[in-house]
Fold:
Amino acid sequence: MAMSGGRDDGTPMMEMNTTPLIDVMLVLLIMFIITIPVATHSVDIDLPAPNPNPPPEDQIDPIKNKIVITQTGEILWNGDSIDQSELVRNLEISKSIDPEPELQFEPEQFASYDLSAKVLNIIKVSGVTKFGFVGNEKYRTFTTGGPANPTG
Structure:
């Protein structure tokens, strides 16, 4: 083992001993780590409550299902009013059908944008692969403020 003890000619060692400096720095680092406050902030998300009752057998079509968002804030699944938890359950059941049925989404003209965005997010999270928007042709002209006029 080699140790540096200075030169053989008797002159004093001129290098600084850094071992105590490193020890002090490590102690300070540990003290700073211990004194950092624990991150206690959180983001609360309201998730829809699951409904334990299974949906009626005739509610899910094995070929094509249509979701409509009404002006009054209702979610319609093939014409039947459902809530968000039933929507999640219907999407999971329709995903398990082989082949997966087509899912169509059609918000009414003055439907809530917020509810439409929430429903689209639920559909996205569910992992449905056969999804499409329908009824967009009614709103292709924006100058009249209403559905497009097929004669003009």
